[in-house]
Specification:
Strand content of chain B: 15-25%
Strand content of chain A: 35-45%
Strand order of the largest sheet of chain B: 3-2-4-7-1-8-11-10-9
Largest interface: B-C, 70 and 71 residues
Helix content of chain B: 25-40%
Order of helices and strands of chain B: EHEHHEHEHHHHHEEEHEHEHHHHEE
Oligomer: heterotetramer
Helix content of chain A: under 10%
Bound molecules: zinc ion
Radius of gyration of chain B: 20 Å
Structural class of chain B: alpha/beta
Shape of chain A: globular
Strand order of the largest sheet of chain A: 4-5-6-8-7
Largest sheet of chain A: 5 strands, mixed, barrel
Order of helices and strands of chain A: HEEEEEEEE
Distance between the termini of chain A: 41 Å
Number of strands of chain A: 8
Distance between the termini of chain B: 24 Å
Radius of gyration of chain A: 15 Å
Structural class of chain A: mainly beta
Largest sheet of chain B: 9 strands, mixed
Chain lengths: 125, 411, 411, 125
């Protein structure tokens, strides 16, 4: 049974752990103990792709106290696969360039002790 | 199978919601004030001994007042002990969820008369600390940890809504201006001032003048909180409490000739994390909770004369008026801009000023919505009265939509 | 008017309660584990889609995991969305209060099948910090502020009880020894070791030998927590979750031939502050909640074959067995000393080891008590089975007695 | 209507604020908005007596974090009038001398910024 720790351990190691339902094929990111689509507990782990597109975003100007001093900072919801999204911090992008549809790639950094999922705009060669 | 017994509201009270005037009061002081007003509002009078149970919505007195177990505390302070007292928590939908439990408690046959209240004393903390506490209502591990705040989640919804439907920030401003106007008519509202008057007042202090509201709202006096949402897109941080008294239809007749009947109730949940929702521009739990309530009431969106919807942020009101079926998907912003949701419009929304102007002591908000409908449907809403309102709806959301409660009332 | 529909428990599950083995799990992980076990225990099988609503007891995930809004989170993680999910909080009586709401929810006619669970992940904090969090369940302003802790409040009750009835600390030790014995028979218990075996194990490490349990309990290896209560008078800090599935009597028959029927429920409140109670040696809310439950069931204390009572501290079990009417006031300690509450006694109490040995993840405790009665009354309690148990009672207390819930079950 | 602040202000000024119901005569300490005996809101303030007797007590060896370092310290429930009790810190008494029935007198000190209600054994002249 996948736990929160499995996902966080994967983040710390530099990849996005997802699960796929062996019964109905639905994908969960982070991995879950139960498939929310069909209720099956028969799920297999896989590494989610690191590239995706911004589905929604914001720039935080009034931060919670734990991130005080970092403002303004951008956060985005990124779609990695059809219908599979995740939240992450946006780096290396100006407020003007941030938009829905922007192509991004995941990066894995640490904020103090904690792994932090980040995204950066994809640089086309 | 439907509810085994009908339920009605026979009394309602609330403190003014405010960020300053309650500085010297604790949560228990605020709740007692609201509860006493609710009792005093019962037409034929009511005694404490008539109230058989208490349900209290509260989000996090743990964080705000270092006090848990608050339902027992409120029962104690109001003099309701030894009656059963239970706290209900569903983030900003806490007292909405408590209202549904109040209905079930009576319909079950266990109690004939119960009090359902809500309370939140938030102004014990700084704005940053409050932001931190509110973020607990989202998914700590997957959202709050990467830096999402509560305004941030709704801001993200706004960007998706703008992108998909072409709605605009200017439409959101129409919501804010309308709600401030309604608040100016409501003696219980935290802000009782039109946006244009606030613009004039703040401008004078800084030697600035504004042609109209929009010039003010675009100015640095309306700073960005979480892009694209600015200060005037966000409800304030508030202290306050509200309470309603519910009774079985049969018991209700002893207390008043004009009870307000609960016609339908609904509640739904959804993924905690916004990113996990099927559609970022819709709160699915609103659709499902409304469906349940409409079905139980045998009514549809077109039958609703007045509604209090959960406008913690301006975009939330736009999305809610769509998801409740008042306007086609994507046209909520346009409807606000056209004045259709104003007191004079065809679908008056948040006549009390909404969370934006009335204030949002989170755990008290659902109960305060029920208070407003009690006043509106009894024709007691004074300057903010929606003429001939016979059917009212409340819509109370927990966090970014992982919990939604809807209740429909009728005269 | 009584309940409009009968209600039964058709399934129950729980994690082991523990202070260490769940270190890598969060609250949501624990709850899912308990909920899946509850579902697997339903004789004829059950699907997630059969469960129409979720009620979760939780004391303060706010403080322990920086996570509010936990009922929606649990629904999400279990795959129960979009079903209604509501968190109930009444300190250590949280999931007891949730059980009562589950009963009302079904009796109201709104739902046929609901899940009621409880969860607490406490071992994220140090013992001092946990002490701080638990103190929030008492009156912050009038009790916690002067230095009362949660053990301290029960310790004060003990001094009053000793003074008035001549009961003794040695009698409290009998409760602890008995509950450790029962825990040693329960694979879900945090401590599965007799006190004498613990004495031997700890003594060996320090080169000490103890003639009997009492010599060990009087030694420095059993330090004072809050005089007169020592470590072995106190329940431990635990992580864990529990869940039961409730159904209307009619729906229950689809799922099992041996449902456990809810025969009576009760809930009462009292002053938050211990000093404000009429009598410091009695928990009045226990008496009143039990009165309600006995009346609804048409039963009395003499009819109860087995009971789980809230022994957060040894003195609490003594006071509870008196207030529930099992023994005359002042004689609960004597009854424990005489073995009357042991598995072989005439009134077996806490066959699962109680909070003392089974553990006490506070928000999960009421649901875990219902789990135990489900097992006992179905004859599935293995080594700790009370022979021929047909009627069981649970007694779940919030804080020092400001909330008490009682439920009575029958085959 | 009495609030929590009224009681705390009185503590800071060195007395115990109580209320008495004008309808049924019941006494409340701290003062309350409503008489829990009869439901009346018609209550008058008065200063509670400072002398009383210990009704129950404990000595805290495992403190909450805010009082860490002060342990062991004693806390008592003191009966000031028939049936009217309050919780306070016990000072100037050994664990051996502390007992139910001990005569005590209130004292008002500060713990940091906060007023703290204390009791000391009454010294008979
Ligand atoms: Zn599946
Ligand atoms: Zn009185």
């Amino acid at each position: 049974m996948f736990t929160v720790k499995d996902y966080r351990d994967a983040l710390a190691e530099g990849y996005l752990l997802a699960s796929k339902c062996r019964r109905c094929g639905a994908v969960q990111l982070p991995p879950r103990p139960i498939c929310p689509k069909c209720g099956s507990g028969d799920l297999e782990a896989f590494k989610a792709p690191k590239r995706g597109r911004v589905a929604a975003y914001t720039v935080i100007h009034v931060p919670p106290s734990r991130f005080k001093g970092e403002e303004p900072y951008a956060v985005a919801i990124v779609e990695l696969l059809e219908g599979v999204r995740v939240s992450g911090r946006m780096l290396d992008v100006s407020e003007a360039d941030l938009r829905v549809g922007l192509e991004v790639e995941a990066d894995f950094i640490k904020l103090g002790e904690e792994p932090l999922l980040c995204f950066r705009p994809l640089k086309h060669p | 199978m439907g509810l085994q017994r009908g339920v009605a509201i026979i009394g309602a009270g609330m403190t003014r919601f405010h960020h300053k005037i309650h500085a010297d009061k604790t949560g228990r002081d605020l709740f007692v004030e609201a509860a006493l007003e609710a009792m005093a509002s019962v037409d034929n009078g009511i005694e404490l001994g008539d109230i058989e149970a208490l349900f209290i919505g509260n989000f996090s007195s743990d964080s705000f007042e270092h006090q848990g177990h608050v339902a027992a505390l409120m029962a104690d302070w109001l003099g309701l002990t030894p009656r059963a007292a239970t706290r209900i928590e569903a983030a900003c939908g806490s007292s909405g969820a408590a209202l549904n439990i109040g209905v079930m408690a009576i319909a079950s046959g266990l109690y004939d008369v119960v009090m359902v209240g809500g309370v939140e004393k938030m102004r014990t903390l700084t704005t940053e600390e409050v932001t931190d506490v509110l973020a607990m209502a989202s998914d700590e591990v997957y959202e709050a940890a990467v830096g999402f705040t509560f305004p941030g989640l709704y801001a993200a919804m706004a960007t998706a809504h703008f992108h998909r439907y072409g709605s605009t920030w200017e439409q959101l401003c129409a919501v804010s201006i309308k709600n401030h106007h309604n608040g100016s008519l409501n003696p219980k509202a935290q802000f009782q001032e039109e946006v244009i008057d606030i613009a004039r007042r703040l401008g004078e202090r800084r030697g600035m003048t504004f042609r109209d509201e929009m010039e003010f709202l675009r100015s640095p006096l309306n700073p960005v909180v979480a892009y694209p949402l600015r200060l005037f897109d966000c409800c304030p941080i508030s202290d306050g409490a509200a309470a309603v008294i519910m009774a079985s239809e049969e018991a209700a007749r002893r207390f008043t000739d004009t009870p307000i009947y609960v016609r339908g109730i609904g509640q739904a949940s959804d993924a905690m994390a916004l990113h996990d929702r099927e559609d970022l521009t819709t709160i699915r739990a609103t659709r499902l909770a409304a469906q349940q309530a409409y079905r139980m009431a045998g009514l549809g969106p077109e039958d609703i004369d007045v509604a209090d919807v959960h406008d913690c942020f301006t975009i939330a009101e736009v999305v809610a008026t769509e998801d409740l079926g008042f306007f086609p998907k994507g046209e909520g912003g346009k409807a606000a801009e056209e004045g259709r949701t104003s007191l004079e419009g065809d679908k008056p929304i948040n006549p009390d000023g909404g969370l934006k102007a009335k204030g949002h002591p989170v755990g008290a908000t659902g109960a305060a919505m029920a208070y407003e409908m009690f006043k509106q449907l009894r024709g007691e809403a004074d300057k903010r009265q929606v003429p001939d309102a016979e059917v009212g709806l409340i819509h109370n959301v927990g966090a970014s939509g992982a919990t939604v409660v809807v209740q429909i009332y009728g005269r």
